[in-house]
Amino acid sequence: MLSSHYSCQRGKEFFSQGEWEKVVICYSKAINLNPQQVEFYVQKAEAFLQLCDFQSAVLNLRKAYSLSSAKEEYVERMAFIIYLQGQCLFDQEVYWDALESFTRASELQPDNSLYRRRSIACLAALNRYHDCFRLVNEELDQDSKNPDLYILRAKLHEHFCRATLCYQDVQEAIALEPRHEEAQILMQRLLKRAQQAKNQAMNKALKGNLKDALLKITFAIENSPFDAGYFIFRGTLHRRVKDFNSAIDDYLKATELCEEEGAVAMEAQRQLLLTYNDFAVHCYTQGFFEEAVLLLNKALKGEKNEKGLYVNRGDCLFRLGELTFALADYQQALELSPMDFSLRRRVGMLLDELGLQEHKKYQRAVYCFSGAIESNPRLPHYYLHRAKSRLFLQDEMSAKEDVIIALLLDPENDAVLPVMTSLFPGQPIQDIISSKIAEVAKTILERKLQACPYSNSRAKLKWYGEASGHRSAKVVLKI
């Protein structure tokens, strides 16, 4: 026992002097004399550690562990020494052996995140990125507030060309540590890459290469997935290639990303409405009228002062046979643009159709035909239809005025003759045209034409009998 004590004392002296080989010799002698003394193994292990003989250090600590009741202390020390061994191997680029050391250290101390992360570094150095990615995810499950882990995973996403996920992880890291240098550098790289792709997309779009332009702007969005302007641009490209569903998705995403009252939000909303309209027109041309109406309903929720939307929906409703609703849309459009001749023409056409459908409801039919005439007083068949309805109402005088106006507007109209025969039996056309009722009819027509807001010409009409090539004035209408 005295000899072991002496060897221990000598070992301590050499320890303080940094004579590590002599320390090992002294404690080896002490262990031979007293193999149950835990301290001897511990000190010998420390000496081996200083000599970078990691395996011998671990062996001595393992012996101390087996003899001592304070086992946790020695487990921690063994794990640390194995970690140091792994770090030395890593610095020497012996990655497989380093990975084995870090793995052993982690097994001894599973809660030590440093050891696990060094394993991740080894896997990355060995190009085992999938295993690396799995371990990083496990680390983040346990420590979701560590910006370094997010950056590590972001780099892995970048390696796998998953730019959007890379961006999201960088964003998480910056949220946790706004001045994180590596995160800022990676973010700038992503944004620069996105801007370059956007510029390339614009150049290709200008050259008409829309397919490649879409690929480029999609790449830009992957690298900067929260830039509303990129989604608006891609939506425009989708619209140009008639991929309306994708365009709508992009515009909706853009509106989510920007401030409600900002200029970008207004542009996104405007483009969305245009896309609804374009999609509706496309559906209309394909015969999908109900789908077109639904799309225009969405557009009108966002924009109630665009006449074109009402006109297009009215056209669809007309094709679906919903004449009353179609008329309401045309009239709404006309309120927004009272001088639009095409709108008045549509209203007139629709009112005429409604009048024809009013079976045996002659008063209602007259009302519809009168509305058609007010909208477009130049079409003779509106007057002719009203004349027939007025006959059923026994309003013969008004019916005569209408049929004369129809004849004045279109002397070659064969449909006028049967009605004229009914109203003016046995009378020559020239006598009818020269009658007082014809003068009244001419005055009524001239007033309507002069009051017509879309008429650009006030030239006097060439009445029946004044134009060359007309029917003979001597024709007599027969019953």
What key attributes describe this structure?
disordered C terminus, Tetratricopeptide repeat domain 16, TPR repeat, TPR-like_helical_dom_sf, 479 residues, mainly alpha, Serine Threonine Protein Phosphatase 5, Tetratricopeptide repeat, rod-shaped, coiled coil, TPR_rpt
Classify the beta-strand content into a percent band: under 5%
Largest sheet: none
**Inertia-based shape:** rod-shaped
Number of strands: 0
Please count the helical segments: 25
Q: Give the low-confidence spans.
A: 456-479
- Multimerization state: single chain
Radius of gyration: 46 Å
* Structural class by sheet pairing and helices: mainly alpha
Mean pLDDT over all positions: 85
User: In sequence order, what are the helices and strands, one letter per element?
Assistant: HHHHHHHHHHHHHHHHHHHHHHHHH
Q: Share of helix among residues?
A: over 70%
How far apart the termini lie comes to 152 Å
General description of the model:
This protein is mainly α. Among the domains are: 73 residues, Serine Threonine Protein Phosphatase 5, Tetratricopeptide repeat (Alpha Horseshoe); 93 residues, no CATH class. 76% of the residues lie in helices and 0% in strands. The protein contains 25 helices and no strands. Helix 13 packs parallel to helix 15. The longest helix is centred in the middle third of the chain and has 26 residues. The protein is rod-shaped, with a radius of gyration of 46 Å.
